[in-house]
Amino acid sequence: MADYRTLSHQQLEQLRRELVDRYEQFQQQGLKLDMSRGKPAADQFDLVSGLLDAVNSQSSLLAADGVDCRNYGDFTGIPECKAIFCEMLGVSFDEIFICGNSSLAVMYDALGKMMLHGVRPGAKPWCREGNLKFLCPVPGYDRHFAITERYGFEMIPIEMTPEGPDMDQVERLVAADSSIKGIWCVPKYSNPQGITYSDETVRRLARMKTAADDFIIMWDNAYAVHDLYPEHRDHLLNILAECKAAGDPDRVMMFASTSKISYAGAGIAVFACSKGMMERMKKLLTIQTIGFDKINMLRHARYFKNLDGIMAHMDRQAELLRPKFRTVLDAFERELAGKGVAEWLNPNGGYFISLDVMDGCAKRVVQLCKDAGVTLTSAGATFPYGRDPRDRNIRVAPTYPTIPELEQAVALLCICVQLAAVEKLLRD
Amino acid sequence: MADYRTLSHQQLEQLRRELVDRYEQFQQQGLKLDMSRGKPAADQFDLVSGLLDAVNSQSSLLAADGVDCRNYGDFTGIPECKAIFCEMLGVSFDEIFICGNSSLAVMYDALGKMMLHGVRPGAKPWCREGNLKFLCPVPGYDRHFAITERYGFEMIPIEMTPEGPDMDQVERLVAADSSIKGIWCVPKYSNPQGITYSDETVRRLARMKTAADDFIIMWDNAYAVHDLYPEHRDHLLNILAECKAAGDPDRVMMFASTSKISYAGAGIAVFACSKGMMERMKKLLTIQTIGFDKINMLRHARYFKNLDGIMAHMDRQAELLRPKFRTVLDAFERELAGKGVAEWLNPNGGYFISLDVMDGCAKRVVQLCKDAGVTLTSAGATFPYGRDPRDRNIRVAPTYPTIPELEQAVALLCICVQLAAVEKLLRD
């Protein structure tokens, strides 16, 4: 099929009629499918059902260090659980803290502490400064942007490249403006594009000169072990090690969780940072809580045992997710390639596929899908303030639907992408 | 035995020698006992071991409304868990929110939201106001005071009476000073005295005129069902109902948890408030997290079933705690009564016994105990900034030690209380 941009008005009109026909057939099917969030499917959870038996009334409830997990104690987490995440993130025992079920809550809380108390050793509370800015690589994770918006930051979009955020732009901005306090990063299998930051990008983030002496990299390593292809695991450089090497160990706060490993609602979240910053965080966290849920930590540690246990589980999970990603990507390739109406990446892991439709068409595509019963993530959601300046990015979340549902949904999506493009070409 | 304050110098010297002898015998025993915190004992946890079997790999993981507890969803908590806390706190389904494992963290977070965003509908963020004050009934809970201290509040101590905080003082202060933003309350079996607020106190809190239009009552109902004597359960008026009746439903935020019901480290915490404030909190919490641990909610709901299930369990727990409380109180009665050296209350529930020693002696008593191997809560800890102006209050936490340990510890404590008093009388 030819590039739609080369077609005549008459050809486009013909095409529009065909697409509308096919679209109306979908409308008549009465689909009802929600693909708006990156939700795991039930079969993923079934893979870890043994987690619920890992601790029962007959189990010892003592952690490896003898602490009774039913009681207060082990403020920073139980040692066997810390060991797993230390291995996952490449940090040491005194650089990690095991929290509750939500890494988002940990990030919200960490930024809240920066706002009210200052977290980097010696840093002042940001809430006393008038003008606060945060760098937001785009497309990115809407819930990150919602946090910095809520705290009152002006959010500056940074273009993503195949190697991560556009570092020329980042370096120029942070060197010049001390009101830029940090950057959001999903460094491995980024949400939504599935891009893994190159070594060069990680090193430049660690080494760049920042006008703010309390600049923080919010390193949300949400998909650290979420490879789709065991034979091709993306490699991510250890940014904490790089920050130490660059002489600024307090520049980064790392986050991870098992929300997309064990249970989306009942997993374990962690943060990691330099020892200096950890001392500060511990002092602040002591005010806040007597400790997090150690029985759930114990459950996870006894079930997965170690990072190998997690990797083996993730490979089984990948077997469920690969066909779903393939269903979407094959349809894109079959229906959209060469037509000049869309671009996408083929991620090696993560939870999403990012689809760039023709400029000015994303909202129309999402609306068309919705009107035929398929709810996608809102157009613009992957940008600060929900504003995609080119109105082209759509986040596709393939994990939750079944493959037959996904086939229908993506077939509809491909029609809508083409229809919106043709409508636009006819208008122009 | 006569009141020590009536003894001659010679009699006091004689008494001091006897007490020092007995104290030194204790020192030689090499005791090593930590009674500094209100920790549950392992036998309390053993009572609820079935909780760990309430959900296993064979269980349905669907909540009563069909939501899969392993996945995202049911943002405010699963219905069967909400039902239990609604009954416990006397609130409706849309007035309650089920959170993670720590009510302290929920309180810290709620005040953090008041600082940064404002929580009462229409309220401004407090961090923009220069001068913030908070009322702190004393003696009280050190971790409450640590939170308001951390947020930069000036803390104003309010004397406790047998009916709760001195309401004459409270009413006078809040009417006159708009920088007083709230009050900490542990309204039932208060920490550490075990006092339950009278109906009159609750009503006056709900009705009093406050100069601040965003005044908040932090109602930490930590011991809502923690009766020691099933035949005598203290009654607490529903303050949310009273605030509604008084025309200011947004004045109170209620908190509770199962930390002293199921597991100190792995229970469930909740907050409750008016519908108007809940709408505001939900909007703010949506930024922060996709949801709390629903599998732990399910575990608790399936195990306890309803409030009756919790009450039956708490009566069994009371059987373990009553002899511990009695051990302490009987020793106080036997060793300290009538000597003019100490006063205490006999609580009907809760987790602590509050001991007022002779003015100026609390630090000395705690130090003497420590030097003989028994660590008590630091003297002054029950007051803002750790400063007990009369240096007399000691919080005794009888739950964690065994009864033989407790007998030893309290025998030592009674000697130290008398010794410190005699030392003081000899100095004066």
Automatic annotation (TrEMBL), chains A, B:
The keyword Transferase applies. InterPro entries: AspAT_Ic, PyrdxlP-dep_Trfase, PyrdxlP-dep_Trfase_major, PyrdxlP-dep_Trfase_small. Keywords: Aminotransferase, Transferase. This is Aminotransferase class I/II-fold pyridoxal phosphate-dependent enzyme. It holds the Pfam family Asp_aminotransf. One of its GO terms (molecular function) is L-aspartate:2-oxoglutarate aminotransferase activity. The keyword Transferase applies.
